[in-house]
Specification:
Layout (H helix, E strand, L loop, with lengths): L34 H16 L1 H9 L18 E6 L6 H12 L2 E4 H8 L7 H20 L3 E5 L5 H14 L2 E8 L2 H13 L11 H10 L8 E4 L4 H12 L1
Parallel strand pairs: 1-3, 1-4, 2-3, 4-5
Helix pairs in contact: 1-5, 2-5, 3-9, 5-6
């Protein structure tokens, strides 16, 4: 979750929060940022900078938890699982499965954006504020001994770098997981999103975003594992979980 931001992609469902504190956003991501929206974004980013600790504390109560919640492991063995993948690949679905299997916190940048901004603009200032808060949230969770599943596109090395530094600074294991899916399945999911958004889907990415990011490519890290979102997904989730035990 780089302080320079990433294009929209993925989705996320979270627990209900105090709307007066962190109001939900209106849907949609306009191709340009109108002057009024830009002014609102600047105001919100300034407010986030001034109240970042309170915001992180609030978000900790709203992130996705497995059934029964989660607790620090004994002895504490924090771990950061960084998902990577194109919009529509099913990162959020995979993140939920991994979080449930491992008793982990699920931190999704798309969901955070809806909680932090009234009307998402994807402006640079907004992205910087979003990912700064996300880094602080993940840092706190790792510091408290939790496993964290980070749900974002993370396809470009410089976008991954800040979270990688968080893991390094905390001295925790970092596992990068590339979520892939058949092109036809991805397009079908994105087409379905355009006609009717599923519950808990916080992503604004559409087929045009998918095409643009696919053309840009994947800057692969030195080490990562691949998780295919398809008929054998359950086995893939179990394989990853078993490798961490």
């Amino acid at each position: 979750m780089t302080t320079t931001g990433q294009p929209p992609g993925g989705s996320r469902e979270g627990a209900p929060g105090r709307e007066a504190t962190l109001p939900r956003t209106a849907r949609g991501s306009p191709p340009r940022t109108p002057r009024r929206a830009r002014t609102a974004t600047l105001g919100q980013t300034r407010a986030l900078a001034e109240h970042s600790r309170e915001v992180v504390a609030q978000l900790r109560t709203e992130i996705g938890l497995p059934p029964g919640g989660f607790a620090p492991r004994e002895p504490p063995k924090p771990l950061l699982i960084m998902l990577m993948g194109l919009p529509g690949a099913g990162k959020t679905h995979c993140a939920r499965l991994l979080a449930g299997r491992l008793g982990a916190a699920h931190v999704a940048t798309d969901h955070l954006r809806t909680r932090l901004f009234i009307a998402a603009s994807y402006a640079d200032e907004e992205n910087r504020a979003l990912f700064t808060v996300a880094e602080a949230l993940v840092d706190e969770l790792l510091g408290d001994g939790h496993i964290v599943v980070l749900d974002a596109t993370n396809l470009i090395a410089r976008y991954r770098a800040p979270m990688e530094r968080v893991a390094s600074r905390r001295g925790v294991t970092l596992l990068r997981v590339l979520v892939v899916a058949d092109d036809a399945d991805v397009r079908a999911r994105l087409a379905a999103r355009a006609t009717g958004r599923a519950d808990g889907d916080h992503s604004d990415a559409d087929v045009s975003v998918y095409e643009r990011m696919r053309e840009r490519g994947f800057e692969a890290p030195e080490t990562f594992v691949e998780l295919r979102n398809g008929p054998d997904l359950a086995a893939g989730i179990e394989r990853i979980a078993s490798s961490l035990s």
